[in-house]
Amino acid sequence: MDLVKRNLRYWSRTTLYNLMQTVLVSLVLVFFFVTGKSDFSGTEGILETSAALYPYYLILTGALVIMSVTTAFFQTYFFIFISLNSSRRGAVLGVMASTGGVILVIVTIGWVLWNLVPGEISESGRTLLPLITGALLAVGAAAISMGAVNARWGKKGVIVTVLLSMVLGGTLGLTIAMGADGIGGLLRKMMLSFAGIERYIVLLAGAVLYIAAGIFAMTITRKLEVRR
What we know:
By secondary structure, this protein is mostly helical. The protein has 8 helices and no strands.
């Protein structure tokens, strides 16, 4: 029972910390977007556009936080967990629950804002929400898989993760450089380009990938020993 309570406390703190990171960084990005634009129609226009675009900043930041924090967990805290008699399966389930919690809050914030703020941006956001949820689940699946590979195969896994992180970092830098409408606006346009895809198929595919990634992580870490 003490082990269960300790794990619950740890994952609750971790989920809250990751959410705080995501929200704060995305707010900073929105601030830079607002201060860098001069064609808003008054204060009301600034607030409405910023609120409608904010979920896109939150999605992008959340994806990066999920990718970095989840892979880092498998490199360090995973071995601490099993050294404290936590099961490998329990550690994987914990990181899946934490990542899923972050995704759920991000999607909920987007749903609330897009229902409160009128306009085309919000309307398209509501339409894209299942697709966005599926994409975030796919990102979570990739993070869990890469983290497990890191834990299982050490340096080889780290090399793969570093290369993928470089691609993600380069993409973010290019987005910032090209985004006349801000990062959130460009991400919205990218999502709209996939609007023709059946959204609920993407959502289902993301969920399947997420579960499959968890099973994969449990399988390859099943006999993993604590590193000395």
